Amino acid sequence: MIFEIYIWVLSFISVFVALLWVIVNYTSKNYKIDNIKLKDLPFVTVAVPVWNEEDTIIPTLNSILHQNYPKDKIEIIVVDDKSSDSTFDVVKKFIKNGNYSNINLIRHKLNLGKAGALNTALKIARGGFFWVYDADSISSRNLLKNMITRFFEQGNSDVAAVVAITLIKNKGNWIAKMQRLEYIMAAFVRKLLGSVDTLHITNALSLFRTKVIRNLGGYDTGNLTEDLEIALKLRYNGYRIVMCENGNFHTNVPETMRKMWMQRVRWFRGFIHNNIKYRKFIFNKNFGLLGLFQIPIEVFFLLIVFISVIVFSYHFLDILIDFIFEIYIKRFGIFDFTYPGIQQLILNTNFKLLFPSTVVLILGLYLYLSAHDYVGEKWRFYIPSLLYLFVYPIFRSMQWVHALVLELFRAERKW
Amino acid sequence: MVNVFRKIMLFTALLLALVIFVAGLYAGFLLDSYRIGNADNSLLNKQLDVDSFVIEKDFFETFGAKDCSLLLNRVQALGGDLADIGNTLARYDAKSISHGDYYEVLKRKYFLFEIKTYTLKRQMIDICPDDESNIILFFYNVENNQYSLNQGYVLDNIVKKYKNTVVLSFDKDFNDTALRSFVSYYNVTTAPTIVVNFHKKFEGYTPEYLITQNLKE
Q1: What is the pLDDT of residue A337?
Q2: Domain range for residue A339?
Q3: Is the CB of A10 inside 8 Å of chain B's CB atoms?
Q4: Out of A177, A363, B129, B168, which could bridge B114 as a Cys pair, Cβ 3.0 to 4.6 Å?
Q5: Distances (CA, A) of A223 to A49, A100, A226, B91
Q6: CB contact under 8 A, B157 and A333
């Protein structure tokens, strides 16, 4: 009975959140503004932190150099965080061969992590805007210009960061395909968050006002998700973050379960750590909807995940034990059952679960299709979609538990 | 203005979620009524079957024209149908969201029919001593019931193998005077407890071979 009530409560929350997103999506406008011409494009520093990126760094640098942006208004700072491969030499050769005077290559004597590398770049950045650019990413040609434009739109003087739509570059195996859907949904959710001014995440390709992040002390070294930390820091200090919806970038995602697992556990540990660090957001009306609704509901969902893992594991174990006994006792007799007629099928339906589940499924499909439409990707129905919808959440829950255990036992925070 | 708009969105979502849930509850309520009607109808038919059997038995006894084969088959069939009704009731009860009291009444009716069937079967032994069928009483426990569940699987197997066997199951803790007397008559203190062919009692989980040793082929 407790399990049934729990499922019911869970279904209600799911229906509520799904409806809320549908309403937000329906009422929000897309900021796909093209051809805004700024008379004076500002000077931008592109910070590229690298660590063992010898295979991906050159396409990344080419992607930056091919931005539709005045060449004299861009400086690139590549910070090699003590790579153990030939990344440093590869970049050095690239600069020499291309005679790129606007690329500055710095090498750390010690490995300081991504935040440390970004701080190094931040110290010497000359641009009024600071574009963080992951070393395995490729962006669309007009992205920088479009991102910059958002800072200058009316009413955006308090915007300190602009984030772009992230899509995946490597779509080879089913693990990557599953993440493709995840990234599409994540981009869509960020758009929805942005439309109600609760966006509090930056990503692998985010553009900042240099002065603002410098004044706030730069990046938190030792933080597992420095991009989330800087975003929360900005929001905490009264700045806004907005999405750039025209243009996107593609990044590499892990292609093995182990790598994906470790990456997600790192993200989730970062989420837990940073939400504790910025716990003053919770139910604080000074932060508007972000403090009163968005962050509390994320923390609440985290609790739900942990409770669900316990409740569902217990229930699953119960069913499994019963099933094993049934097989052991009945042997092949377990397959002797009669198919119910239509009347029995209806009468046996569990409406407590079926009704809200159907509504959530329909709303979820609507959001799923809207997300594809938003990022301009075609919707395809294939096995990874089903895995993403029905199997991946189980793994995700376990990743959350793994992250929580590591945080509780204060495991070393390393990449 | 923007804040008001956001609040409206939140309340609209909450309101719609509530509407959906009320609609779901209403659908569940309607389905429960339908289930109750369906189960009640089955039990009503069963009542008529039992009445019909009693009339038939009385007729044969009064006019001395007993047909043991026919009567034994009838009483056996009564028991078999009851098992199906019991399964249906258990399924409906697990899925119900309302009408809790009705389900209790139906379960009570069901257990009373089982006792009635058991008594009739016992009377038949005196009338037709050559009866080759088996009857098993199964007292189970709803709470903490893995042993009862396992015993149920064993009895399912037996019913499949021994077509001449009927199992009558009782919730040992169900609150009904007749059932309490029945439980007390067999001194049932633990679940599962099994009584084979009126006399042989097994307490606790009982494997198939022990039960079948006491069955008529």
Answers
A1: 64
A2: 1-415
A3: no
A4: B168
A5: 15, 33, 5, 53
A6: yes
Residue in A9, A15, A357, A363 to test binding to B, most B beta-carbons within 10 Å: A15
CA B17 to chain A, closest CA, distance in angstroms equals 5
- CB-CB neighbours of A277 under 10 Å: 14
Count of CB atoms situated within 10 Å of the CB of B131: 19
Q: Same topology for domains B1-131 and B132-217, yes or no?
A: no
Residue B154 carries which DSSP code?
H
In CATH terms, the fold of domain B1-131 is Methane Monooxygenase Hydroxylase; Chain G, domain 1 (1.20.58)
The residue among B14, B19, B21, B147 with the most chain A CBs within 10 A of its CB, best to mutate, is B21
Average pLDDT over residues B168-192: 90
Contact A235, A277 (CB under 8 A): no
B162, B212 Cβ separation under 8 angstroms: yes
Query: Closest approach of chain A CAs to the CA of B84, in angstroms?
Result: 12
Within a 13 Å sphere around the CA of A276, how many CA atoms are in the beta-carbon half? 9
Residue B216 φ/ψ, nearest 5 degrees: -85, 140
pLDDT in tens, A317-351: 888 888 888 888 877 666 666 666 776 677 777 77
Question: What pLDDT does A387 receive?
Answer: 83
Q: Does A347 touch chain B (CB under 8 A)?
A: yes
Q: Mean pLDDT lowest for which of A58-72, A129-143, B88-102, B136-150?
A: B88-102
The answer to whether the CB atoms of A356 and B20 lie below 8 A apart is: yes
To the question of domain B132-217 being in CATH 3.40.30.10, the answer is yes
Rounded to whole angstroms, the Cα distance separating A297 from A200 reads: 13
* Digit-coded pLDDT (tens) for B116-170: 889 988 888 888 877 788 899 999 987 767 888 889 889 988 988 888 888 999 9
Contact B24 A24 (CB under 8 A): no
Tokens of A16: 């509520």
CATH of the domain at A195: 3.90.550.10
Which of A25, A355, A361 is best to mutate for the B interface (most B CBs within 10 A)? A355
Report the alpha-carbon distance of residue B209 to residue B214 in Å, rounded.
9
Per-domain boundaries in chain B = 1-131, 132-217
CB contact under 8 A, A23 and B13: yes
Q: Which residue of A has its CA nearest to B208?
A: A329
Residue A290 predicted with pLDDT over 50: yes
The chain-wide mean pLDDT, for chain A, equals 88
Q: How far is B92 from chain A (nearest CA, A)?
A: 7
